[in-house]
Specification:
about 190 residues
């Protein structure tokens, strides 16, 4: 199976982008707490891009992986499958609130960003634990249980998700994250 792309490899790479986005959110919080004037439209755009990426792209793919792992007897209805489904349900209100507060921040030029900061923190607090569980429990389980044919089916499902959501949403998020978190220059 070394010659084919694994679904878990794709999802791990997506986790790195989510990690970069949450670090960008932390940088945004620092700037807002310093009363730095940020481009409100770009803040709103990173939030919208992140919401689409994780809500419609990444978690949909994880759900396909969960279904396949469960079908292969890798988890019960209780754990770890249910935990991931519950977390995917729990993140939806956090993403909706983040989008709402980012929109309010965009619209109200003279408002304080306290609600946006709180929403950003909620998302930052959620993702490390969720990604750790996936990286250390779900993905190794998938790697162990899924056949080459299973992997090919999942990759096809992932491609379908990307065609529905937009095949460049990851590049859009990566580009805007880079604006908030430029790579350090080599010495």
């Amino acid at each position: 199976m070394k010659n084919i792309e694994k679904s878990t490899q794709v999802l791990r790479e997506e986790h790195r982008l989510i990690e970069s986005a949450t670090l960008a959110f932390a940088d945004i919080i620092k700037e807002l707490e310093r009363d730095t004037a940020l481009d409100r439209r770009r803040v709103w755009e990173i939030v919208q891009s992140f919401k689409t990426y994780v809500g419609r792209w990444h978690h949909a793919k994880e759900d396909f992986l969960l279904s396949m792992v469960r079908a292969r007897g890798g988890c019960s209805a209780e754990y770890p499958g249910r935990t991931f489904y519950e977390e995917h349900q729990r993140i939806q209100p956090l993403l909706a609130n983040l989008a709402k507060t980012a929109h309010e921040y965009l619209q109200a030029a003279h408002c304080t960003p306290e609600l946006l900061v709180r929403s950003l923190r909620d998302v930052i607090d959620f993702y490390p634990g969720h990604m750790w569980k996936a990286d250390h429990l779900l993905f190794p389980l998938g790697d162990e249980l899924l056949s080459e044919a299973d992997q090919q089916v999942l990759i096809q499902q992932f491609d379908w998700i990307e065609s529905v959501v937009g095949s460049d949403i990851d590049e859009q998020l990566r580009a805007i994250v880079a604006e908030f978190r430029p790579k350090p220059r080599a010495a």
